[in-house]
Design goal:
Elements: E1 2-3, H1 4-14, E2 19-22, H2 29-35, E3 41-44, H3 48-62, E4 66-70, H4 74-89, E5 93-99, H5 115-119, E6 125-128, H6 135-147, E7 153-159, H7 160-164, E8 166-167, H8 184-195, E9 200-204, H9 211-224, E10 228-231, E11 245-249, H10 255-263, E12 266-270, E13 293-298, E14 312-315, H11 318-328, H12 339-352, H13 364-374, E15 380-383, H14 389-395, E16 404-405, H15 415-425, E17 431-436, H16 437-443, H17 447-452, E18 458-463, H18 468-477, H19 492-498, E19 502-506, H20 512-522, E20 526-531
Parallel strand pairs: 2-3, 2-4, 4-5, 5-7, 6-7, 9-10, 9-12, 10-11, 12-13, 13-14, 15-16, 15-17, 17-18, 18-20, 19-20
Antiparallel strand pairs: 1-8
Length: 549
């Protein structure tokens, strides 16, 4: 006989879980007891939003659900931020929430919430385990749900009385989700449509990618010479050095890539949802019937045709389709009819990623370009949301799978928690988190988590004294009427030192390389506090350009 907390942890171990992220609460004491001497690494976050973002990033890195525990009420509401990231990023994740005992339900007991209603719109599945005997069943179902089809988050509530009850319920074997694969006929149709094109384009993104998928796409690129773009914050899906890679369809798409998309005659989309950001507000393709011939590959059928009617829809896992595509596409005439289009697009990409000088003594284009040149292929780059990320997306060259962790949901504060998860999962790889001053202060308390658990990441804080993205929109829509966007920041280098880490303040680009090297050599969690000029509003936009007469 074991109590529910022990049964739960043993089932997690059967699923291969070796790490959980949590903020402790009295509502799941039995689960904490189950983790005692379990061999599972317990990471103590400072706030539940940080814990769930770490779990989400861990799910991205492993392809298996990242796991977080939070307490009821305020803990659950804080933790919902990471659940939202996991849903929009299609990341497998499981959040366990402590719940009031069954003897107190529906009395509005202390911190009581109905989590099935609260998380119903935010997660793939939200449920409550009311019987201790059914813990293995619910957990198995949660893992299958989180990983199957379009991956995503699952939320399970754990009443105190259920967790503390005892049972002889045995663990069940690890989950074995089914994944869709394309039929040979569907792949042949897609290949024929591509070969019949004059200006074909491939867009990669979404869930289910892997190192093997990236290698398959590289083989396909070499055989086909078709240009390949990626959706928002999926730049590590293919090696950016490939001649066929032509850029990312992110928040600040290059004019040349925008033109390439709109003038393409056949577009193959593998995995991406073709959401608002990737389509530039649903303007790159006509709704609901694009002028381009559209081949849409996605792990679930309900996404295909949701916004855009495809000429060919294929329900398939992205890795399976990438491998099948590479195997089916044979090299043809050289050059292909579209080879000149591809070469032109690549030349435009090279020009776009050549650093363009911005105002101020600290130039982000030089900082990011330096890291792109000097960091190894295994370096992992993370960021949250803000205009500062534009320099990373434009000037950093991603070479390997899962070397980019960034929220397609646009969640501020993501970069530091994600970097902690990455450094714990890959301790020998360089991990660099980018954050704006506003973004960093959303989760800067998690630097204490990095210090406690020895995650020697490097956080680069780009401090321009304002919420830069919102200021940009403010100036566009209400010029000269600045309201609520100014920020006063702390000495972030001193914060790093207060936690026993390394900190340095940088006021000129010439200081960056030595400071970064010193941070690496310190072997400590580090913060490099960059004072950037507010005039450099984005990679190509100046604050003064909004000045009114």
């Amino acid at each position: 006989m074991r109590h529910g907390g022990q049964i739960l942890v043993e089932q997690l171990k059967a699923e291969g879980v070796d790490r959980v992220f949590q903020v402790p609460g009295e509502s799941f004491l039995a689960a904490l007891d189950g983790l005692y001497e379990s061999g599972v690494d317990v990471i103590n976050a400072r706030q539940e939003g940080g814990a769930t973002m770490m779990a989400e990033a861990d799910g991205k890195l492993t392809g298996r659900p990242g796991v977080a525990f939070v307490t009821r009420g305020p803990g659950a509401t804080n933790g919902s931020s990471g659940v939202h990231v996991a849903m929009q990023d299609s990341t497998p994740m499981i959040l366990f929430i402590g719940q009031v005992g069954a003897d107190m339900v529906d009395r509005e007991a202390f911190q009581e919430v109905d989590y099935r209603q609260m998380f119903g719109p935010l997660a793939k599945w939200a449920a409550q385990i009311d019987t201790v005997d059914r813990i293995p069943e619910y957990v198995s179902h949660a893992f299958h749900t989180a990983m199957s089809g379009r991956p995503g988050p699952v939320v399970l509530a754990l009443p105190e009385t259920m967790l503390s009850a005892r049972s002889a319920a045995p663990s069940v074997p690890a989950s074995n989700p089914a994944y869709a694969e394309p039929s040979p006929e569907a792949v042949d149709k897609a290949v024929a449509m591509l070969k019949g094109a004059e200006r074909p384009l491939v867009i990669v993104g979404g869930p289910g990618w892997s190192k093997e998928a990236g290698e398959a796409m590289a083989a396909f690129a070499a055989a086909s010479d078709i240009p390949i773009a990626c959706s928002l914050r999926c730049q590590d899906y293919v090696d950016n050095r490939l001649p066929q890679y032509v850029g990312d369809m992110g928040i600040a798409i290059s004019p040349a890539l925008k033109k390439l998309v709109t003038e393409a005659d056949v577009v193959l989309v593998i995995g991406a949802r073709l959401g608002e950001m990737t389509t530039q507000g649903y303007t790159l393709f006509e709704v609901p019937e694009p002028s381009q011939t559209l081949i849409h590959v996605h792990p679930t059928g309900d996404e295909i045709g949701r916004v855009y009617r495809p000429d060919l829809g294929i329900v398939s896992g992205t890795t399976a389709f990438a491998k099948a595509l590479a195997g089916a596409f044979r090299a043809g005439p050289v050059p292909w009819p579209w080879s000149s289009v591809r070469a032109e697009a690549r030349a435009a990409f090279d020009a776009w990623t050549t650093p363009q000088e911005t105002p101020g003594a600290v130039k982000m284009e030089e900082v990011v370009s330096h890291l792109s040149r000097t960091l190894g292929d295994d370096a992992i780059i993370t960021n949250g949301a803000g205009n500062y990320s534009g320099w990373v997306h434009r000037y950093y060259q991603f070479r390997g799978w899962r070397t980019q962790l960034a929220p397609t949901s646009g969640s501020m504060g993501y970069g530091l928690p994600a970097a902690i998860a990455a450094k714990l999962r890959h301790p020998d790889a360089p991990v660099v988190a980018f954050a704006g001053d506003g973004c960093f202060q959303m989760t800067c308390n998690e630097f204490g988590t990095a210090a406690q658990h020895g995650a020697a990441l490097i956080t680069i804080v780009c401090d321009n004294g304002m919420y830069g993205t919102i200021r940009m929109h403010q100036e566009r829509h209400y010029p000269g009427r600045t309201s609520g966007t100014r920020l006063r920041s702390a000495d972030f280098a001193a914060l790093a030192k207060a936690y026993g880490g390394f900190g340095a303040t940088i006021r000129d680009t010439s200081e960056f390389a030595d400071a970064f090297d010193a941070a690496v050599k310190s072997g400590l969690p580090s913060i490099l506090h960059l004072h950037t000029d507010p005039e450099a509003l984005s990679t190509g936009l100046r604050l003064s350009s909004f000045a009114t007469a």
